[in-house]
Amino acid sequence: MDIVTRPRILVVGAGFAGVECVRRLERRLTPGEAELTLVTPMSYQLYLPLLPQVASGVLTPQSIAISLRRSEKYRTRIIPGGAIGVDLRAKVCVIRTIAGDIVDEPYDYIVLAPGSVTRTFDIPGLTDHAFGLKSLAEAAYLRDHVISQLDLADACTDPAERASRLQFVVVGGGYAGTETAACLQRLTHAAVKRYPRLDPGLIKWHLIDIAPKLMPELGEKLGRSAQEILTRRGIEISLGVSIAKAGAEEVTFTDGRVVPTRTLIWTAGVVASPLIGTLDAETVRGRLAVNADMRLPGHDGVFALGDSAAVPDLAKGDDAVCPPTAQHALRQGRHVAENVIAALRGRPTRPYVHQDLGLVVDLGGTDAVSKPLGYELHGLPAQAVARGYHWSALRTGVAKTRVMTNWLLNAVAGDDFVRTGFQAHRPGNLRDFEYLDAYLTPEQVRAHVEEAGRAAR
Ligand SMILES: Cc1cc2nc3c(=O)[nH]c(=O)nc-3n(C[C@H](O)[C@H](O)[C@H](O)COP(=O)(O)OP(=O)(O)OC[C@H]3O[C@@H](n4cnc5c(N)ncnc54)[C@H](O)[C@@H]3O)c2cc1C
């Protein structure tokens, strides 16, 4: 009989933070020291910053899906599913597997890294009609959808329908929205040459944001430079504006304009995964409030990081918390692994401190703006820094090779604008992709764990 006496470390989420943590734990702990388990609905780590390039067809989806089983050295047990609740008192994580079974996973240490979901507001029609860009499926779906609008516009005889199919609205002037608008505009600009009956002048992209500036984190000069590049390429930018209403065939802006469109892309920020709400613990704007060493105060063995946690930003000071970026998530992942090991071995944990390295924004082709270590770059040097940074941050050699090959192939041969149709049979809006109703309430978690405990006795 195999009696497990090793401490159980459970990591929730296989994103930047979770995978970095697991790999470090595997390297630094002997198999006899702890049992490692990872809960994740996907069998890969998604390199999210390159998602706009998948949506625009520069990269294939597989190239940014980094396998969790690439090496025989990976010894962590993987539970394929999503955590739907955590009972901090009983130290049990409730999981729904991808087969739909409910599994209770006890732990001694838990590392919460489930990331974030798209932030939406109570705007009529939004979740029914908007597309998000947070998953590989969404990127693939969006690409097919945009190409299908060109196909349908080309085939239709009604000028009003054609015009509406060729207008596209992106909400969110942060780096995700700006890159998405820029990359997809390039896609339609290049694709329309293959549709001789379509008037390229009918294709209109709108990028809107309620904030007064595009990507304020870039600073005044670079933000303006990005804006100029996009405007030159024909993207209409409206700042201080949001969506008042979304419909299947038109979108109403808060300034009263009604834009006929079948494509509303919503990238207006993120909120912590709903899993955090199941803990019944203190949050800061939805993110779990943790100490600088990423421990949850008052709960031994509970750590949280990445987009789902409000980790104090000691490099900035005051009450700042680390922004939800891959840059922080990845480094926090490594750091939290060291702190879990320290806790396990009875040593003191260390606070997380990281000086922001800056921002890179790929606007497609040779257009880019970057601010590495405070230096402001645009054009080719910015693009080289942007691609170089992402390329070096990809975890595996095979992912690096796939991405580089895709970049080269795209630069030489361009795109064939093929719709895959894999998901054509199902709708693909925000509501369909984010599974927000999968989670339990804190009371349901507790009741479930107590019931399971009674049944086991
Ligand atoms: C389009 C786009 C562009 C971006 N560009 C940049 C950029 O240029 N630079 C930058 O620094 N950041 C960028 N970001 C932000 C960056 O990707 C995130 O900050 C980063 O991914 C956060 O890491 P994480 O590990 O917290 O979450 P994620 O990487 O999102 O990982 C979370 C993981 O948890 C899993 N999960 C979710 N719920 C559950 C659950 N209930 N149970 C188990 N597993 C779960 C998910 O499947 C996922 O694998 C971008 C984001 C987007 C969407």
UniProtKB/TrEMBL annotation:
Q: What is its EC number?
A: 1.6.5.-
What EC class is this?
oxidoreductase
Boundaries of every FAD/NAD(P)-binding domain copy: 8-333
Which Pfam families does this chain map to?
A: Pyr_redox_2
A GO MF annotation of the entry reads:
oxidoreductase activity
Which keywords has UniProt assigned to this entry?
FAD, Flavoprotein, NAD, Oxidoreductase
Q: Is Flavoprotein included in the keywords of this UniProt record?
A: yes
State the similarity comment.
Belongs to the NADH dehydrogenase family.
Which protein, by its recorded name, is this?
A: NAD(P)/FAD-dependent oxidoreductase
Taxonomic source organism: Streptomyces werraensis
Lineage at the top is: Bacteria, Bacillati, Actinomycetota, Actinomycetes, Kitasatosporales
